[in-house]
User: Fold these one by one.
Assistant:
Number 1:
Amino acid sequence: MLTLSNIDLSIQRVPILRDVSLDIETGTTCGLIGRNGAGKTTLMRAIMGALPVEKGAIQFNHVDLHTAKGHERAALGIGYLPEDRRLVPHFTVEENIMVSFWATKNTDMARLKWVYDLMPEIGRFADRKAMTLSGGQQKLVALARAMVAGSNLLLLDEPFEGVAPALAQRLMEVIGDLHNEKLTVLVSESDYTHSQKVVDKVYAIERGQISLMNNTKAA
């Protein structure tokens, strides 16, 4: 489904990603493990088109993403949860989730209902302003927004960072549910604490270079 081939990317002439290659098969959950500054966020942003690659190719369902416009990727069913959430503070929870519908002119509300069914707590504070939520609750909302857009692929950048243990566990339960539904997911973490039980394959990233780790999924 998603293939990165020999990607190089620099920011202000500083090399960040170097000869990065990875493959994520349809319906699998893949981990991307690395310390802060290793290149995880840069890789995610490159897939989403927020950063241009200098060399190599990114393909999604045989579409060349590295030549596609950034806004075209949402229409391909790619959802993205950024590390810093990027919610609109004065929007309600539901308005933040609906942003992807408005951007893609999608009128199928079944996807929204699916998200509320999967995360009923989101529905309970759907009318609250995003700015009134805790950091962990905001992560849930950002995940819901990504899930609405990501009918084919979800990119989750450090979803557990800065979240209280109880909400981190809840996030992990939701990601486990996505795995059971055969949605394709790439999730990054700094220390592999939370996602170990649900990932099918793990890549390690260090100083902008990637290596494939052994499959360590727990039974």
Number 2:
Amino acid sequence: MIVKQLSVFLENKSGRLARVTEILGENNINIRALSIADTTDFGILRLIVNKPNEAYKLLKEEQFMVSLTDVIAVEVPDKPGGLAGVLKILEPYNINIEYLYAFVEKSSNNALVVFRVEELEKAIKILTDNGVKVLAGNEVYSL
């Protein structure tokens, strides 16, 4: 139920983001979800792709600073308060969410959200024990 996420360190200059997406596109790697956080000097691009290990290797070969991080992808009811309900499940267990972002696509009538948490296996167990669907990597990569 763990999903591999690419984190790419990008200098905040013209063409760097375009180059990453170009490399992925040229190698038939599809972006499933992404987030970018930036400052005036640099940004961190977080990506879920259909072939994470291959993408990692390609970006390394092109001299990008890239890492693979374990995250979870969770189905969240696509209605007001849906995300709050899932977060409330984790709250009593002191699971810290470092960051989260949404997917481009939905799963059935639910939204998909990527969570980076400190205690991954514990969070997965708590969520699944409470009826929240946590998707496996192969499910996410093939959406």
Number 3:
Amino acid sequence: MDILLVGGAWLDTSAWSEVVPELEALGHRPVPVALPGQGDGSTSATLDDQVAAVLAAVDAADGKPLVVGHSAACTLAWLAADARPEELAGVALVGGFPWDDGKPYADLFEITDGVMPFPGWGPFEGPDSADLSDAAKRAFADAAVPVPEGVARGVVHLTDERRFDVPVVVVCPEFTAAQARQWIDAGDVPELARAKHVDLVDLDSGHWPMFTRPAELARLLADAISR
């Protein structure tokens, strides 16, 4: 099956370089999705541009793909479910949750000169980054792609309630499946509270398991397909 891999803020397609061969070894065709404004040198890209890139990958897939969103891109994966509810095998959300309608996509940190640069490791001290070595942190920061303002502050628009029929797997790295269930049941994640098929799976890692647990992440994504 085609597995579309959509990276979160500051990541380009190289973030999936260690996950791709693991998925191939498990018999799947992984496709890292190139997002406008995250690796192509553009600072004028918008959220609509990124949604269009994900949908183009869905439309080009062989059969119904699994769409994987990491962190902020969990919302991109969910927007794909909203736009193509009958064309997806499912959605996997890694280390995050989808925003609901009307929320800004990733207005998380200061915008400087039209982009949201990586803010350094201060905001991510603790479970998010505990499994990253100092060398890995330096490499991440050096490679981090500033997110265009038009992406970070783009407004999420959801229109098709058939998205709630799309199967969802939430991969829980720096938080636990039990915590995620509490948040969903408390109404903190309204989109998943309404989704009809949600599985929660634990992964013992920080926020970026594609760097620290690529084989384990690949196995969980393959398991998501078997569900």
Number 4:
Amino acid sequence: MQGLFVSKMAASLLKNAPQVAAKPLAVIPFTIKQLALTQLTQTLLKEALEQRCLDFMQGKWVAIEITDVQLKFELSYQNGRLIVRPPQCPDVTFSARSDELLLIAAGKEDPDSLFFRRQLWIEGDTELGLQVKNLLSSLDPEKLSPIIRFGLGYSAQLLLWLQQQAATTPSLSTP
């Protein structure tokens, strides 16, 4: 019976957490989100920025849509730095749920496998989309700062555990 309770709680948390997160995100002005997203993307892509691996994005706009929390923004690389803006007219759009993006960032999930399972959608300039996807695949979470690596790793492990608990519903039937 305890297993059923844990399973139902995990399923409920996985279902409701994005909806809960979406509410405050909806009222936060984009300028505040822009500051946070700029810092987050610069942190996650620090190595790529240092190695100038983002030149292919010069003058191009990549939209990131986190579907379950209704967050969408565009990202570009200009003059050696990342620029974040509200959605306008991207060259390519990546769409996924927050849990899938977390697993990609933590190095626990491969963008290719999510794409082929139709959990990561890529629309628009296919060449640019492929370059961005390859960049995501090449990210090494071990090169992140220890505190970011810990936060991502812990969050990803918790998410994977919740998904496992939600998927293992004990049978209620008795012989």
